[in-house]
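User: I'm writing a short report section on ligand binding and want a predicted complex to refer to. Could you take this sequence and zinc ion and write out the structure as tokens? A short remark afterwards would be nice.
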Amino acid sequence: MSPKYKLPNSKPGSKGNLSRPDCPYCGFSRCWKHATYERKGFHRPKSEHQHGTVAIQRYLCLNPPCEHTFSVLPENVLPYCRFFLDGLIGIADALADGMSAYRIAKYQWSLSLRVILRAVSQIKNTVTPWLAKLYQEATGTIKTGFQALTQAVLKTICCYR
Ligand SMILES: [Zn+2]
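Assistant: Sure. The structure tokens for the complex follow:
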């Protein structure tokens, strides 16, 4: 994972303070909010009429020799993925319920089958290993499986649900 992206509260045992992340470059704990930028083009399911744009907070490290700026992604936003985490969970749940990728693409998302198949491949090859690493860093134990991992990670790290 690039040091530009850091999930909040990923330190062991930390319930953390979302507004004060440590610098991912030097570990310094005093970082100031430094504007936001918008990440656009997220996929949203047909049933949701939200726009697919998210404001990403940037921070400035106040450690004089460092002074890097960095972004902190909201809990539901994954690095390099145009689906929100809950969208990927929805796709994984639908597949586990026996729905075909074709039906998910057509009826839940109005996207091409190719995009859904790519999401399925991202779940397996990118997101699951990333969650496994986060979970292991936070708890020191190993867990496998996308659905088990998302539940565990959200419960132990993000306080998201
Ligand atoms: Zn720094």
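A remark for your report: The longest helix spans residues 113-139. Residues 23, 25-26, 28, 61, 63, 66, 68 surround zinc ion (CB under 6 Å).
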